[in-house]
Structures are given as structure tokens and as C-alpha cells.
Amino acid sequence: MFKRKQKNVETDSTKWIKIEVPIENPQSDLTPPTPRLLEGEELVKYKAVLKHFSNPDLLIPTKEKKNASDNEMKPLTDFEKAWLSRECIMRYLRATKWDTQDCIDRISLSIAWRREFGISNFGEENGDTLTSDLVSPEAVTGKEVILGFDNDCRPILYLKPGRQNTPTSHRQVQHLVFMLERVIDFMQPSQDSLALLIDFKEYPDVPKVQGNSKIPPLGVGKQVLHILQTHYPERLGKALLTNIPWLAWTFLKLIHPFIDPLTREKLVFDEPFSKYVPQNQLETLYGGNLDFKYNHEAYWPVLKEITARKRRNYLERFEKFGKKIGLSEYDLRGDHDELKFPVD
Prior knowledge:
Elements: E1 17-19, H1 40-54, E2 60-61, E3 73-74, H2 78-83, H3 86-95, H4 100-117, H5 132-139, E4 144-149, E5 155-159, H6 170-185, E6 194-199, H7 218-231, E7 236-242, H8 246-255, H9 261-264, E8 267-269, E9 290-292, H10 296-320, H11 329-333
Parallel strand pairs: 1-9, 5-6, 6-7, 7-8
Antiparallel strand pairs: 2-3, 4-5
């Protein structure tokens, strides 16, 4: 798993495309996967979970803990019903190996966590307390960037620890969660997973900060893994890692036992990014044609505008199609008039 592989990155500068902002939609020759249909026992289990969360008297904890008291329980909001899509339920069912009760418990726990973390309202414009202004100081050096789509039409989130600009803190975790929520906004109908491109390259232009660690402490790493594996199940489609220093290899070996087996299968070490990403969707630094230099003043407002517009479209279609739990993300992210996957 941790064997280094030879990299071969070549670029043709005559084909470079200068860009400072996110790419809103994938190029036309990238096609999302076909939506999955359920039948037999899987359909029976799906309907059981759907029925549980469709109960109008259902109450969910407001904090991520078991045995919550009555005053810590609240009914589902419309925003949470919109989050509880057909594909959301299917992701949790797959993650729990189709154990109905485990799936229900996991979804309930994630709803509680989203409430506690401040991301249960579908964006800051709807009342989320995790806002772009809160995490903007973490974003100024471009250490986490959403840019382009991979061969399977997954939106790409670049993580660049070498551009770390702040001491280790909870706000760094908030920044990662904020960017995960935003990369989900970029997902196309029927594609519900993302690609991570993680580059440990050092950047001398980023000032050194006391307490600034390019490699997160083990405790922070475990916390992030808990969030990803527990509250974003089946979201990772591919994770490509490159320029890994010895300290990062040590960290990866320490964190390896905490990574679930399905996630391990999606990790790719020191292979050319261009093998997995079209050149016109990939930074020149990795053999692509996107001449991208992070400019916070140019990038950040456009990221906020694009994702807010996509969330607005999602919620408008959620209302149009009846504000029901179990509506399909294919229908909610699309622009067609008729439901492809009616709840009933």
C-alpha cells in the first residue's frame, strides 16, 4: 500500500488555459454513472428506512450522542428532508451492509452531528452557522481548492497541506467540512461521489506560522476520519496522493488501522493525476492544462456564488416535487420537468 511509484508529469504550455475560479460544470464528454435501481431485498430494506424517517412524529437528537434527553430532540426540518434523498439513504445502506436498523441509527447520528456542527440548513443563506466568513482565513493560501472533474465526472477537491497557513485548530476541521459541503454542491445528477487530489508538496511562498503543522496531529487525523467515514459514507470515489514525505508516510501508517477497508481500496499513491483526470480539468502542476494560481479575492466569491445558486436550484426543485423525503438527487440536481424517480 505504501510503496512509492515513479511519477512522469509532462506539460505542453501551448495548451494551457489560464483560470482563477472554479469550473461550474464538467466538459461535455464526461458522463456521470447511470442511476442505480433497487429491487428485491434491497428495495424492501430501502422502503423500511424511508418509512421510518417519513414518520411525521419522528424526533432526532440535536447533538451527536446517544440517549439524548427529550429537550434535545427535534423533528426534521424541510432542509433535513431535502438532505434525506433517495441516494442519501442508499449510501448509508451500502455503508452499513444493508443492515436496516444500523442504517437508521447512522442517519440519525449524522443528522444530529450536522445540527451540532452547523450545516443542517443547506447553506449559510438558510441559517447554517458554519459560514464562508468563518473559514475564509483558512482558505487564503489555497490549501483546499475545488477545481475540475475527474474521468468519472466527480468534482475534485484538492488538498495541499504544504500551503497550510494556520496553527492546528478546530477551525481547520470546520474548513474541511465546509469545502466537503461545497464540493457536494458541484455534483452532477446521478454522481454522488467526489475525488480528492492530495499533494504534500512544500510551498516556500507560504509563511511559517508557529504551531503550523503540515501533517495533522494523530488526534485531528482520527477526528477527520471519523467525520468522513461516519457522516459522509460512500462519498469518496477516489483519493490520489502524491509528493508524500517520510513524515506523511509515518502519519499514514499510524492512521491506516482506522481507515475502513472500502476507503483503503480508493486510495492511490504517487500515480500521475492525469491518469484519472482529463487534461482540461487538471492543474498544469500535475500534467494538465489548467494554468491555475490561487487568488482568494477572485476565487472565493465565485465559489460562494456558484454553490449558492446550485443549492437554490436543488431546494426549488425539492419544493416543486412535493418536499418529500426520498426524492432523488438525479431529479433535484437536474433541469428536467418530470420526476425520474417518484418517491411513491
